[in-house]
Design a protein that fits this description.
About 5% of the residues lie in helices and about 45% in strands. The chain is mostly beta strands. It has an 8-stranded antiparallel beta sheet with strand order 37-36-39-33-31-41-34-38, covered by helices on one side. A 7-stranded antiparallel beta sheet has the order 25-24-30-29-28-26-27, with no helix packed on it. Helix 2 packs antiparallel against helix 3 and helix 3 packs antiparallel against helix 4. The protein has 6 domains: about 180 residues, Neuraminidase (6 Propeller), CATH 2.120.10; about 80 residues, Sandwich (Immunoglobulin-like), CATH 2.60.40.10; about 90 residues, no CATH class; about 180 residues, no CATH class; about 90 residues, Immunoglobulin-like (Sandwich), CATH 2.60.40; about 100 residues, Sandwich (Immunoglobulin-like), CATH 2.60.40.
Length: about 900
């Protein structure tokens, strides 16, 4: 086998023959990073038939020779058909076991080969003729044949474990079952196939090919609370069924579709519940687990401006100073504002019939935020009572006003405990802050159980102080529940009103608690998550965040009234390895309107402005929202809109067709989808156009000496680029801009009144010789310019012809021969190789006759003499390659290394290093 690899421009022709060991199947590998050459072979000792296995040879590669390093028997018995690879200092050897399985021997100890690690690649069965290829010191791939099908195994841990996806690489069960019929390199395999009764070579990826990147379609903007449908389609290279994963970019769960045929379109619907810009991500996955790239689609959901959600026939009653609502399920919360100068009142409550206690009700406007039962969309609406709500009188509310809402963007955060502990009434001075469990126990003297209480604290300092808390859930994991009788097992949660620390709290130092429980309920009686939620917990967190109450957390304990019962609830603490306690808080923030647009261009009062000016302003939103920025003239007529402008950037539009010597007024409105802000803050901006038209100006591009690159080019290969910069003081775009070459005009490409314009033309459009050119433009208002102002520039075209012959690469490998009389076995033969079957005698004669200093022509002559049938053809090839690449015999050496092994090495040098890089 002839093979080129390594650091030096050499080819190693290695010839082996033996006296005592019978080599049957050999494989070769080169590790470039270590300059090592390895040969693996199965063998049988002819003097001792019981001595058989796998043997490895290693050489060190230097610039002009191979240095014998060592040989070693791995110690694998009952194996055959080895294949070897090496990468970054790690050697992998795979071999077929006699029971049909495949094993791998691997080592990275080049100094001590007794450290071979042997692991199973595939279990016993019909697995034959393995091949292996390493990607690095950790990753390698192996292919094996089973029942005429080819399968791939791979490792990511240096050969310790191997995995297979269970899918055959070939399409049909027609792989030829013989040694080195299949080979693997990286993620590709090549094999000999006999489908259709023809023996051919096939190749394919060893990996299951993932589906194509999905094509996603659907609306790119809409309104919150409304359902939108999106489609996706992808194809799988192997025709496998595919499913699709939709990630909506919000806090909702992803959507996973069922499997469908490759190329079949799927439709999925989604609803967004808060304003914002979202990125939909869609990925396809086939039945073998191969995943496509993510496809994305950006969507924008401004706040919905739909009509009110509450029915105009909803009723509010006032009974003994309490406001109730007959359809309370439709109400998320009330925000009552009393029209009284003496007693303004504004409070917020959740789903309860006792909405607000008041001694006296006056006719008032009541803001109601409704929850649409169908769309589950939160929207404010305003209703007015049709009659005075006094005393016990029932009044009907009718809709008669609608105010643009202030949206409440919703965020959900999760906070794990910063402190958690329990205290014990029988160990009153003991701290249990380091325990992995928190115990909540009501004593049972008969069972020897003490009373314990649990304490939990969470850091909520990064929730904005103006946040409106929507929902609170404390989640504790119960690994065990002890229930000693059938009595009531009610657990209550109380807010701590004094501070405490996990590392110091004891029964004697536990803090004071609020008198009202924030929660009362029954924990699960089996291992699961215990979700604690109530409106009072939400009120607690609201006051923690607003700063009304200090956040000292909560205490969990058994109800204090009633008889003693045997109960112990155990929950994980933050010291547990998993399922740690946390609080989940959903909150909303009031929208802040954009800042007034500022920094106008042209600046306010500017003069001499062109008749097609670009208007621009700086816009910024306190919430970081993107904005639609609309420009208006002084009469309120729309000039144009710049959509989806990022906060902290500039918005711009072009105001075209203005008159000379005229004053114009303008203003801007920035809209974040909820609120609008006008700019300037006060008044209006203005500018005055200049008097008369100004000529445009042409200049050379950047640091070019003239207007073309290159100045000299080849007739067959060069494309000339002509470029010029156009500027018009009046802001006029060119009505005509050309490059004139040899009196022929070419229109240039570009846009803008201050921009580069280009034209690319192939050299063969001009022909050989010197050509002359200039640039010319007009602004459409009588102005023009020429560059150069007089005369012309030139460029030249030459006929340099083309290369007579281009070499794209010649594959070279290594050949090994067995003992005398045994035909050589081709090892890892790439497609397109010419295989020369030479027996031992001919090979020995060939090597002896070449001698040191032989030329390429003498090699060709020898081959022609040995093999007359193909000699002339080989002679032509070698002579041609020799003439172009200068091949010569550089080095010849015979090595006798014992154990009956003799190696002949022929080094052929002279190939340029750059050519080798290209050929690989």
């Amino acid at each position: 086998m002839i093979m080129f690899e390594g650091q030096f421009n050499m080819v190693y022709l290695v010839y082996l023959y033996n006296l005592t060991l019978n080599f049957k199947h050999v494989s070769v590998a080169i590790d470039n990073s270590r300059n090592k050459l390895y040969v693996a072979s199965d063998y049988v000792n002819e003097n001792d038939p019981g001595d058989k296995g796998i043997i490895i040879f290693m050489w060190t590669i230097s610039e002009d020779k191979l240095w014998w390093t060592k040989a070693d028997c791995i110690g694998i018995s009952n194996c055959r058909y080895p294949d070897i690879t090496a990468k970054d200092g790690r050697v992998y050897v795979v071999a077929e076991q006699l029971n049909g399985g495949v094993i791998c021997a691997t080592t990275d100890r080049l100094d001590r080969w007794d450290s071979w690690e042997i692991n199973q690649v595939s279990v016993s069965g019909e697995w034959e003729f393995p091949s292996v290829s390493a990607e690095n010191e950790k990753k390698a791939s192996s292919v094996s044949i089973s029942l005429n099908d080819l399968y791939e195994y791979h490792t990511d841990d240096g050969g310790t474990t191997w995995e297979c996806n269970g899918r055959s690489i070939n399409d049909e069960s027609t792989v030829v079952e013989q040694y080195h019929s299949a080979d693997v390199k990286g993620f590709y395999a090549v094999w000999t196939d006999i489908r259709n009764r023809d023996k051919d070579v096939y190749f394919d990826s060893t990996l299951d090919q993932p589906p194509s990147k999905p094509i996603v379609n659907g609306p790119t903007s809409g309104k919150i609370g409304e359902e939108y449908t999106y489609t996706a389609v992808a194809t799988d290279p192997e025709g496998d069924d595919v499913c699709y994963l939709f990630d909506w970019g919000d806090i909702t769960a992803e959507t996973l579709t069922d499997y469908v045929d490759s190329g079949e379109e799927v439709s999925v619907s989604h609803v967004w519940y808060r304003k914002g810009s979202y990125t939909i991500r869609v990925r396809a996955e086939d039945t073998w687990g191969a995943k496509s790239e993510w496809a994305t689609l950006k969507v924008s959901m401004p706040f919905s401006k739909n009509k009110i959600l509450l029915s105009q026939y909803d009723k509010i009653s006032t009974v003994k100073g309490k406001i109730t609502h007959t359809l309370i399920d439709n109400i998320l919360y009330f925000n009552s504002k009393i029209n009284s100068k003496k007693s303004p009142l504004e409070k917020r409550f959740f789903n309860t019939f006792n909405i607000l206690n008041m001694k006296r009700i006056k006719p008032s406007k009541i803001d109601i935020v409704g929850l649409d039962q169908k769309e589950k969309t939160i929207l404010p609406t305003i209703v007015r009572s049709s009659s005075s709500c006094m005393g016990t009188k029932e009044c009907k509310l009718v809709h008669n006003e609608r105010i643009l809402p202030t949206v409440l963007p919703v965020d959900t955060v999760i906070k794990y405990t910063t402190d958690d502990a329990y205290v014990d009434n029988e160990n009153v001075d003991t701290n249990y802050g380091g325990s992995k469990l928190v115990y909540i126990t009501r004593a049972d003297p008969a069972a020897g159980m003490s009373t314990t209480r649990g304490y939990f604290k969470f850091d909520l300092s990064d929730i904005p102080v103006n946040a409106m808390i929507e929902d609170v859930k404390i989640k504790l994991y119960i690994p065990r529940y002890v229930d000693l009788d059938s009595g009531e097992k009610n657990i209550k949660v109380y807010r701590c009103i004094e501070n405490w620390s996990e590392n110091s709290i004891t029964w004697n130092t536990q803090p004071s608690l609020s008198t009202t429980a924030s929660y009362s309920g029954f924990p699960p009686t089996y291992p699961t998550w215990w979700i604690i939620e109530s409106d009072q917990l939400r009120v607690d967190v609201q006051n923690f965040v607003n700063g009304t109450w200090d956040n000292y957390g909560w205490c969990l304990r058994h109800r204090l009234d009633g008889p003693l019962v045997g109960l112990r609830v155990e929950v994980n603490s933050k010291e547990a390895t998993e399922n740690r306690p946390y609080i989940e808080i959903t909150y909303s923030l009031p929208n802040n309107p954009p800042n007034p647009p500022s920094d106008p261009s042209p600046y306010n009062g500017a003069t001499g402005i062109g008749t097609n000016p670009i208007l621009s302003v700086y816009v910024e939103d306190p919430d970081g929202d993107s904005m639609d920025v609309t420009f208006y003239d002084g009469n309120g007529n729309k000039i144009g809109t710049d959509y989806d402008v990022s906060s902290g950037s500039r918005a711009s539009v072009t105001w075209s067709g203005l008159e000379y010597d005229t004053t114009y007024h303008w203003f801007v409105i920035a809209d974040d989808g909820i609120d609008q802000t006008i700019g300037p803050r006060n008044g209006i901006w203005s500018f005055t156009t200049g008097s008369g038209n100004h000529d445009p100006v042409l200049t050379v591009y950047d640091d070019w000496a003239d207007g073309v690159e290159p100045d000299v080019g080849d007739l067959y290969t060069t494309t000339f680029t002509f470029m010029v910069h156009y500027y018009d003081p009046d802001g006029d775009n060119p009505s005509n801009i050309q490059v004139v070459i040899d009196e022929k005009s070419y229109n240039m490409e570009g846009s803008g009144s201050n921009a580069n314009y280009t034209k690319k033309i192939d050299a063969n459009d001009f022909g050989e010789g010197t050509h002359y050119y200039y640039f010319y433009c007009e602004d459409g208002h009588g102005g023009s310019d020429r560059l150069p102002s007089s005369g012309e520039w030139s460029f030249r075209v030459k006929d340099e012809g083309k290369n007579a012959l281009e070499f794209k690469g010649i594959w070279i490998t290594i050949w090994l021969w067995g003992p005398i009389g045994v035909p050589p076995t081709p090892v890892k033969v790439p497609i397109g190789f010419l295989i020369l079957w030479l027996n031992h005698t001919l090979t020995q004669q060939f090597i002896d006759m070449i001698g040191e200093g032989a030329t390429a022509s003498s090699i060709a002559a020898l081959i022609s003499a040995f093999i007359p049938q193909i000699g002339p053809f080989i002679s032509i090839i070698i002579s041609a390659v020799s003439a172009i690449l200068g091949i010569e015999i550089k080095y010849l050496q015979s090595l006798d290394k014992g154990k009956g092994i003799k190696i002949h090495i022929v080094v052929i040098a002279g190939f340029p290093g750059s050519w080798w890089a290209e050929s690989q």
